[in-house]
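This part of the workshop introduces the protein records we will be handling. The structure tokens are whole numbers drawn from a learned vocabulary of backbone shapes. The record below serves as our worked example for the rest of this section.

===
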Amino acid sequence: MPDMRLTIAGRIYSVTCQPGEEQHLARLGTMLDAAARKAGATGGLTETRTLLFAGLLLADELAETQDRAAEALAAQAAQAESARPQQGDLLAHDNDTELAARAIEKLAQRIENLAAGLENHTART
């Protein structure tokens, strides 16, 4: 397993990773270093508190990204729902021959039932 050296907030850390993940780990280390430098910019923090605040900064960024992704998915689902044809809207089935055929069959059955009802009503009077 490769052994990597990451510099975070001026300190060097030795980290082991899976083969082929070196570049990804180096990218993560760079992100953590930037967050640690931002967190420790006020000075006077211990190493532990600097890394804690760096983790919180990164977690905040992640939460914002997840919220935006969830909002985008919800908007996409709402748009897909509004674009979907309604079951009772026969003209909405024009592009789907199977749905249109089923709708026509249902209409034909309803017409036949109405006609039979009228015939029975007329025969009784």
Remarks:
- The chain has two domains: 1-84, 87-125.
